[in-house]
Amino acid sequence: MESGDDSVLRSRCRALPKMPTSDLDSSLDGECGQEKYQQGNGDSHITSNGKIEVKHVISKKLQLKRKAEYLKGDLMRQFDSQVNDFMDSLIEESVSLEPAPIPAVFSPTLSEKERSKLRHFQPPHGQGKQFVSRRSLLDELFEVNHIRTIYHMFIALLILFILSTVVVDFIDEGRLVLDFDLLVYAFGQFPLVMSTWICMFLSVLVVPYALFCLWSQTQSGSYSHPRLYSFLFGSVFLLYQVLGLGFLPTYVVVTNSFPPASCFIIILEQVRLMMKAHSFVRENVPRLLAWATDRTSPGPVIPQVSQYLYFLFAPTLIYRDKYPRNPVIRWSYVATKLLQVLGCLFYAYYVFVRLCIPQFRSISLQLFDLRAMVLCVFNSILPGVLILFLGFFAFLHCWLNAFAEMLCFADRMFYKDWWNSTSFANYYRTWNVVVHDWLYYYVYRDFLWMSQKRFRPAAMLFVFTVSAIVHEYILAICFGFFYPVLFCLFMCFGMMFNFILHDQRKGPIWNIIMWTSLFLGQGVIICLYSQEWYAQRYCPLNEPSFLELLKPRSWSCQRGFMAE
Fold first, then answer.
1. Which pLDDT score is estimated for 196?
2. pTM score
3. pLDDT > 90 in the chain, percent
4. CA 60 to chain centre
5. Cβ atoms within 10 Å, residue 381
């Protein structure tokens, strides 16, 4: 006689639908087939009195329940993934649609034909970046208490750094030592820094805009040989980029021996202004050439000075006549972000004072060997990771959001969820979206456009080369020595990981590998550059040759050389 539980179990096996999860299906089908086989062979699990073994039924029910729970979780994950993909595609399609008119303070007065031309204008090789109103990712995540707790943990670590420094100084000196000599040194010659920055900014405000306005008059048809004028004005613009923005600020920094933080202010602003000037010309020249060809409007569309001025301060490197704007300025939000930047500055100060300086003062006096280097790299991972997090949070989140709020700039996607990356290709795209957009539209896509999309690997290699050269140039000028560690990491390991850890790599293990590589790279950077910094000061060369300037001093500097 057959019990009710056995019949229910067989009915579930018969009613089990065919799902796309093949492994689970095969296991369930196998179990159901085994159940039928057991019934067809004389009811081997039925005792002589006709009762089913209770243990066997319970175990089968528990297995079936676990399989059902696994199937439910797998279906929910697939459903969630499909919904996310659908929402992402929906957002992209909505962005590509024509947006509603956005009131802007600097909106120009254009005719209907000019407005129509602007709406349908596209770059010569595709559509450019679309700006939409959206918040920064961390602002959304910090609304979750679990994520905000991580922020509180970093604040607690800062408090411990401050307490340890105060206690140690009190034990050593017998009093409270509150002087921040490292910060005072790093930001030295600040009045000269501000004067240099004002000159750079005024030149970028006047020269590119004036050259573009003068060149636009030569394309109106009243001048003969417009291509010759284009060549002349383009040459003047390139000369200004190389000499006016490239050479002169660097000359001021080097001749006046600016300290590191002051150097970073000038050199980073130099690179930023050069990229903005290029974007302004790159976005407006094709539009004016298209007008010169069609002549569908009375005159060319020339941006107003107020639009260009807004772009120079806006937290983006892609020029547009209009950006999505917020209606009000939240000054409390601005104050909070600026205070967070100041807090990150003091955080970095304590990281260097407690974790870096005591270590490298002694290590830099030892002979360079493999054992010392390995220990130095692993001891530098913690300060390197903290500096990485502080730099990201202070600049890409707090500083850019503060300026965006003051300018009512509504598109706050300065970064994406780079911490979830399972590939270095995705990490490069999401770590710094502001710089990535500039490299993608003006280096990668322009390279493909000029090569007619025939050399994609060469375009990617060119982007890596440009990025590596600019990063190494910034560090070489700011530190005062040439030590191409970052360049080698970019061109060797960066390129290799970009192809090995590509976008098809999914799963938690690849995220762990990405983080491990990132941590190790930060340790290498902090270790080698810190060693070279102290070696340059402990073992100076009176009249170094060109080859001696290229050779790292940390490879040969030791106590004997310092005594001499």
1. 94
2. 0.73
3. 33
4. 51
5. 18
